């Protein structure tokens, strides 16, 4: 029975990419390469991904990979794109604040599903110029801008809001995932014990908040921060346009 192939859509959805030939007759595509790379990162982290490991995983020579992705940086961008493609924004939602909250929780769920990819979601936009990023990584930005402009924000204000929102989201998920990825052995009991060993004269507030720190709820904490962020944005929306100063 012939083995099924994985269709690869270009970033703009125009259609499948050119298929590279292989000795075993199977097809390989950009989508298959990136899904395999994502599987490696999910399992072994970003440091566990190399072009050699990736070529071994898809059973192809490294040169075949380079026909679809020119270098490892492009693979990393593509992995981020693959995950971000799952983040959808309802640009027609009349309640822009509720929609941004929905997007924020969806982003958190993606982060929890792919904790090892979070460093790419946070750092790849800084490492790759805007005009060179895969279009799929820009889709959330375009959709949030569409939502906010329709809600009455000027374009530049909408861009500022996007930056504030995702700066908060990035910081939140990095903080939450640190406990899962970096210090999974630090249980609530260990955390409470460690805090109570601190000097009460030097760290009175940390000791007093030991119970709150030990009972950290990522979803509730996200909502609390969103309450503050979205309230500030709503206030901004209701403000009259500034009058240019007279000379």
UniProtKB/TrEMBL annotation:
Keywords: DNA-binding, Transcription, Transcription regulation. It comes from Mycobacterium rhizamassiliense. This is TetR family transcriptional regulator. One of its GO terms (biological process) is negative regulation of DNA-templated transcription. It holds the Pfam family TetR_C_1. Residues 1-23 are annotated as: Disordered. PROSITE patterns: HTH_TETR_2. Residues 27-87 form the HTH tetR-type domain. GO terms for molecular function: DNA-binding transcription factor activity; transcription cis-regulatory region binding. The keyword DNA-binding applies. InterPro entries: Homeodomain-like_sf, HTH-type_TetR-like_transc_reg, HTH_TetR, Repressor_TetR_C, Tet_transcr_reg_TetR-rel_C_sf. SUPFAM superfamilies: Homeodomain-like (SSF46689), Tetracyclin repressor-like, C-terminal domain (SSF48498). Residues 50-69 bind DNA.
